[in-house]
Amino acid sequence: MYLYWRKTGKGLAAFLAGLALMTVLYVLAGLVLGSIPVNSSYAQATQGIEIFVTDNGVHTDLVLPVKTEIIDWRGKLHVQDYAGADSSFTHVGFGWGDRQFYMETPEWKDLTLTTALTSLFWPTRTAMHVEYIARPLRQNKYQQAVILSEAQYQQLVQYILDSFQQQPDREFLLIEGKGYHDRDNFYEATGKFHLFKTCNGWTNGGLKAMGHRAAVWAPFSFSVMRQVRE
Questions:
Q1: Exposed, middle or buried, 210 (CB in 10 Å: 0-12/13-18/19+)?
Q2: Which DSSP category does 67 fall into?
Q3: 176: helix, coil or strand?
Q4: Sign of CA pseudo-dihedral 174, 176, 182, 186
Q5: In a 10 Å sphere around its CB, with 0-12 CB exposed, 13-18 middle and 19+ buried, how is residue 156 labelled?
Q6: 16-53 tens-digit pLDDT
Q7: Burial label, 16 (beta-carbon count in 10 A; 0-12, 13-18, 19+)
Q8: What pLDDT shows up at residue 107?
Q9: TM segments (predicted)?
Q10: C-alpha span between 58 and 43 (Å, rounded)
Q11: What are the tens digits of pLDDT across the range 49-76?
Q12: Spatial distance between the Cα atoms of 89 and 11, rounded to a whole number of angstroms
């Protein structure tokens, strides 16, 4: 019995050491690749369509005007599905991420070890989180304004549209009754979430899609915001 537990202990120690090493390498890779820009020659337009990139310290979102000449999001995100919103709301926020994490973790205190490990180490289903916002945002350290040309905005819109699962009639697939409050909802999304494709990677991908300065790889929110502010 002693030998059994000794062998088991060594195996557990080796596993934990390997996990610690992988974590260190992941963080280092994120820091290095998050500091290397793509589209580094990008020059922001002085006039055009204003969007925001927002950061809650862990997760980033893209916030767009509800209506422009390119798209009126109310045609896709029906206001009647949002009890606390109406046609006067000016902006809409988009975030992509792990479906289970979104559904089961409205606050960080709700996070369980099983949910965290599953979302990180196993490719999982995804959801789009959408929130109607009553008035334009103001720039601060958590909310960065970006001015886009119409062509750039069209590219971003297409990137977001492609992130939603759509029915044959092009309607989004609403996940009913899962919003955090009466101004947000969840929809079925495309793609799988995993350690190397995270919510911040999705936001970073949107920046790349429209030709904005972005990181080579951005698993962390601060990597996204760093490139947006440069």
A1: buried
A2: B
A3: coil
A4: negative
A5: buried
A6: 565 566 667 777 878 899 999 998 888 888 899 999 99
A7: exposed
A8: 54
A9: 12-36
A10: 27
A11: 999 999 998 899 999 999 999 999 999 9
A12: 56
Query: Which phi-psi region, left, alpha or beta, contains residue 211 (left: φ > 0; alpha: ψ -120 to 50)?
Result: left
| Ramachandran sector of residue 176 (left: φ over 0; alpha: ψ -120 to 50; beta: rest) | beta
Distance CA 181, CA 98 (A): 19
Place of tokens 């920046």: 207
Q: How far is CA 223 from CA 30, 46, 50, 89, 145, in A?
A: 8, 24, 21, 30, 16
Three-state SS for 59?
Answer: coil
**Residue 199 · residue 96 · CB < 8 Å:** yes
- Please give the pLDDT value at position 5: 46
Q: Rounded to an integer, what distance in angstroms lies between the CA atom of residue 126 and that of residue 101?
A: 9
The whole-model pTM stands at 0.88
Q: Which of 65, 184, 72, 182 is nearest to 135 (CA)?
A: 65
Tokens representing 171 are: 């309607």
Q: Rounded to an integer, what distance in angstroms lies between the CA atom of residue 98 and that of residue 182?
A: 21
Low-confidence ranges of the chain (pLDDT < 70): 1-23, 105-121
Q: Both tokens of residue 92?
A: 């809409």
197-207 b/e (C-beta count within 10 Å ≥ 16 → b) = bbbbbbbbbbb
